[in-house]
Write a structure and sequence with these properties.
Strand order of the largest sheet: 2-5-1-6
Number of helices: 3
Radius of gyration: 22 Å
Oligomer: single chain
Largest sheet: 4 strands, antiparallel
CATH architecture: 2-Layer Sandwich
Helix content: 10-25%
Shape: flat
Distance between the termini: 47 Å
Strand content: 25-35%
Amino acid sequence: MQYLLLIYHNEEQWENLPEPEKQKCYEGYRELRLDLEAKEKFKGANPLQPTSTATTVRLCNGKKLVTDGPFAETKEQLAGYILVEARDQDDASAIAARIPSAKMGSIEVRPVRTPPRLCEFEPAEKYSVRGPGW
């Protein structure tokens, strides 16, 4: 089953971190990714730009409302994610505990919902209309 590991940290704390500490964190991410790839558990990951670059979109009475910044003011901001394949919630949580940012923030572990099959498609030949001579 796939799990999305949502990485939260305090952006101001991260910005004030000395460069050698940031590099140590990046190295930890690299090692984790290589290990997950070797075990075929890594499905994807991306860091996010700071919340100052975000917009929030809402629909109100059918009209689009766009505001600058994230929806909520919080102590920790969504900084990125890692998508993994894991046996269960415990396995996913064990991977989350290895994420370097867990030392200064938090990691939310969320199972990915498998979408329902909306349509079953049958071969087009079944529905072809063919008259005599086709």
